[in-house]
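thought: user wants a sequence for this fold. calling inverse folding tool.
action: design(structure=
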């Protein structure tokens, strides 16, 4: 039931977004895709969601085709560009997601999970950036997914909200793949870190090993500078 990339390449015209990328995401692990802006993280997530197809190589999600895993409702995703329907309330948006996944959870339990109970009647176009992120998270969790993709999930969140977010994610026990350019976030919350530098995997290992690997200085120094 693994999720894996085998020698995957993808280009946007002449831009090589991913080149010969291979990695495996074992069940139950939280894996960080760590890289600077433009490294290829979102492209990798798009491929795992079946939104794009690799030009070379194979992407397997939960043991099969990405689109099949998504269609079966086994995958949840929180993307950078997840728009929310402006005229709707938080409760309506979350309930719609819940119904699309066959009501695997009660509305109250999803709202509680994402810390949205108090905001249930608020229109989504009247939310702060961090509150809107929580709605995207609620939508991603609505179907009790086996596998969760998070593309830079905590960008709009303050320190406290970021901690709470990860506590919730971890308590759910899904397999998680998250894209981040925060070295500290990868170090703290991932079981494994895959470093992508200009479309290539340059390291794959435990967070402490990645942090201490001086041969990754180029990729990691850039990341650290961005965090400042
Ligand atoms: N739709 C597109 N058309 C053309 N080039 C694209 C497109 N989307 C991404 N790219 C390019 O592909 C490369 C990888 O982009 P990608 O968005 O996957 O990186 P990323 O690591 O997710 O970056 P960020 O941290 O900024 O979100 C970059 O050079 C980017 O400019």
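)
observation: tool returned 228 residues.
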């Amino acid at each position: 039931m693994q999720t894996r990339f085998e020698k995957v390449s993808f280009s946007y015209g002449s831009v090589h977004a991913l080149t010969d990328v291979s990695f495996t995401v074992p069940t139950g692990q939280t894996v960080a895709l760590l890289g600077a802006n433009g490294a290829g993280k979102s492209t990798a997530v798009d491929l795992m969601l079946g939104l794009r197809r690799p030009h070379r190589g194979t992407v397997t999600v939960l043991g099969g085709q990405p689109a099949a895993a998504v269609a079966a409702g086994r995958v949840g995703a929180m993307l950078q560009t997840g728009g929310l329907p402006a005229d709707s309330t938080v409760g309506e948006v979350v309930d719609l997601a819940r119904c699309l996944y066959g009501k695997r959870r009660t509305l109250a339990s999803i709202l509680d999970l994402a810390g949205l109970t108090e905001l249930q009647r608020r229109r989504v176009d009247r939310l702060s950036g961090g509150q809107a992120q929580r709605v995207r998270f609620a939508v991603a969790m609505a179907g009790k997914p086996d596998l969760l993709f998070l593309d830079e999930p905590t960008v709009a969140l303050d320190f406290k909200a970021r901690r709470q977010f990860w506590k919730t994610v971890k308590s759910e026990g899904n397999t998680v793949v998250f894209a981040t350019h925060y070295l500290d976030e990868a170090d703290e919350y991932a079981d494994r870190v895959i470093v992508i530098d200009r479309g290539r995997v340059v390291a794959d290992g435990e967070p402490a090993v990645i942090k201490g690997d001086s041969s990754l200085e180029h990729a990691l120094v850039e990341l650290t500078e961005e965090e400042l």
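thought: summarizing for user.
answer: Here is the designed sequence. The pocket of adenosine-5'-triphosphate is lined by residues 12, 15, 17, 35, 37-43, 179, 181 (CB under 6 Å).
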